[in-house]
Design goal:
41% of the residues lie in helices and 19% in strands. With 461 residues, the chain is of the alpha+beta class. The strands form four sheets. It has a five-stranded mixed sheet with strand order 10-7-6-11-12.
Length: 461
């Protein structure tokens, strides 16, 4: 005898007895000819889930009406006036839900509510969360495709690129404006913190503007770094063979901030301070701050001075190394360049400048002369922030942003510069960066529900 199955939803009556039965699905238990026949297929699971949701939504719909009893115009008692089907979007399925209308028989005033008017949005927060995460990590088009695949391949309007853009803007703007609403009382003061500040250029939508700058920062406790083993003092030859991966590590906890607003750095300074406070910043905290040497980055760092005990400013070794890497020279001249780099590695600015000046006299091409000249200016402009990097490394102290993922690379470049045709408005990329910064911090896991639900407030009754 062929075995059959039935999936049902049951509901209680006024006496609390399960009497009402809603059949969701039924069929025969067939012998699987292959693994593809085991259980329900993806599309079948989505269909079953849709029917279960429809059944529960019908049961809940009796309570879907405006919470008013009397007419707001004439104060006459309102009566029910049928239902209207309203759109509701769950994580994987879309529905039409009956919402009750109200009517004033005296003045004919009507209440015709919707899911959107009752709750501030027609999308479930779990769906909005997924949309923020997907659109935060990849292009809107790719996010649309991936979200629809999760829903069984059906093309859903709620996952369109326009909708995703609107969700990111709504939630991102809320995060940017409300990060300081609730700083937990459990935050413990921290003796030492590391601050990295950097900037990245993004192609602008405006054809008359080539690009604009977005700024990022990351704050973390150096005790939360899991570094590679500390190396001993190395020779110049060993130094040449040192890979940048030797400086990498992992930060187990951090807080990030980002801004693309043209506001004289007001927002990035505010968000950086909040990120630092979430990591335990107090006026007794000693701050180690790294930058690529740009003045706007030092300005953000300087703004922290009134909120901590001391700041040790360090020109980020990662950016120093990158400037040397872009200069291509014959072996003899390369040795002089390596000697200058080794001098900086050991905090000897004088030696580095001497070697670069020596090199400038030997170089014949205008391109490399210009690079050397710019490098000399770069070192001179930041010489008071150049430290003995070798010594800091031996002592297990922070000296480079490359000890962890670069903030610009992880927050800006991976999402906003992945394709050459990507162009952005300041406002569009700013809201996106708020979500990416929250996801890169511990904030998103803890606060996403607060962010999402409060970004779509209910209308005032």
């Amino acid at each position: 005898m062929l075995q059959k199955y039935r999936i049902v939803m049951q509901y209680t009556n006024e006496d609390g007895e399960f009497t009402n039965i809603d059949i969701i699905d039924e069929g025969c238990v067939k012998k699987p000819e292959g693994i593809i026949d085991l259980g329900f297929r993806h599309v079948e699971q989505i269909q079953i889930l849709r029917r279960i949701q429809d059944s529960l939504l019908r049961a809940q719909s009796v309570n879907l009406k405006e919470d008013i009893t009397f007419c707001p115009q004439c104060n006459h008692k309102l009566k029910k006036n049928g239902t209207t089907k309203s759109s509701f979007n769950a994580v994987f399925t879309d529905h039409k839900v009956p919402v009750h209308r109200l009517l004033c028989t005296q003045c004919k005033w009507q209440s015709v509510p919707s899911i959107n008017s009752l709750f501030g949005t027609h999308m479930h927060p779990d769906l909005t969360k997924l949309q923020c995460e997907h659109a935060g990590e990849k292009s809107y088009k790719k996010a649309e495709t991936d979200l629809n695949k999760q829903s069984g391949g059906e093309k859903r309007t709620v996952n369109s690129t326009m909708t995703l853009h609107g969700v990111v803007e709504q939630v991102g703007n809320y995060i940017g404006a409300h990060q300081d609403i609730r700083l937990p009382d459990t935050i413990k003061p921290t003796a030492a913190l590391v601050l990295q500040v950097d900037g990245g250029h993004i192609k602008a939508k405006d054809p008359d503007a080539r690009s604009f700058e977005a700024m990022t920062s990351v704050v973390y406790n150096p005790d939360n770094i899991q570094p590679k083993a500390v190396r001993k003092v190395i020779s110049l030859e060993e130094f040449k063979k040192t890979s940048k991966d030797d400086f990498r590590g992992e930060i187990t906890r951090k807080h990030c901030a980002a801004s693309a607003l043209d506001d004289h750095q007001e927002q990035i300074k505010k968000l950086t301070l909040l990120a630092a406070k979430k990591e335990g910043l107090t006026k007794t905290t000693h701050l180690t701050a790294l930058s690529d040497g740009a003045q706007n980055c030092w300005n953000v760092i300087d703004s922290m001075e009134a909120h901590c005990a001391t700041i040790t400013r360090i020109l980020d070794w990662f950016h120093i190394a990158m400037k040397f890497q872009t200069i291509s020279l014959p072996e003899k001249q390369r040795n002089i360049l390596d000697s200058a780099k080794w001098g900086l590695w050991n905090g000897n600015v004088k030696l580095a400048i001497e070697r670069l000046n020596e090199l400038a006299k030997e170089i014949l091409t205008d391109k490399n002369k210009d690079k050397i000249s710019k490098l000399i200016n770069y070192i001179n402009n930041n010489k008071d922030k150049i430290v003995n990097y070798s010594e800091r490394k031996r002592n297990g102290l922070v000296f480079t942003s490359n000890i962890a993922e670069c903030t610009v690379e992880s927050l800006i470049n991976q999402r906003c510069k992945g394709q050459q045709h990507m162009r952005w408005s300041r406002e569009g990329v700013h809201s996106l960066l708020q979500i990416r910064a929250a996801m890169a911090s511990t904030d998103w896991v803890i606060n996403w529900e607060n962010y999402v639900t409060n970004a779509y407030p209910r209308a005032a009754q």
